[in-house]
Design a protein that fits this description.
Number of helices: 1
Low-confidence stretches: none
Helix content: 10-25%
Radius of gyration: 14 Å
Shape: elongated
Structural class: mainly beta
Number of domains: 1
CATH topology: Ubiquitin-like (UB roll)
Distance between the termini: 64 Å
Number of strands: 4
Largest sheet: 4 strands, mixed
CATH architecture: Roll
Strand order of the largest sheet: 2-1-4-3
Order of helices and strands: EEHEE
Length: 69
């Protein structure tokens, strides 16, 4: 009997938008850094998760809340 171990697919979400995993070799921080040019708010975003959802692990980028001024 052969046992096969597979990693769960990662899913990244920011502001309701699903972002594809650019590489399973990237850390979550590297993924965030890669998307910061498209979504500048990610520069200060916190990461929630991973949360298991439908056979994948979901990471949610949450905007930092602060006062302007």
């Amino acid at each position: 009997m052969t046992v096969r171990i597979e990693g769960l697919k990662r899913l990244f979400v920011f502001n309701g938008v699903k972002l594809p995993d650019p590489s399973p070799d990237f850390t979550v921080e590297q993924v965030r850094d890669m998307y910061v040019n498209t979504y500048p708010e990610l520069a200060t975003a916190a990461v929630e998760g991973p949360t298991p959802i439908n056979g994948s692990m979901q990471y949610t980028f949450v905007r930092a809340i602060g006062a302007k001024g």
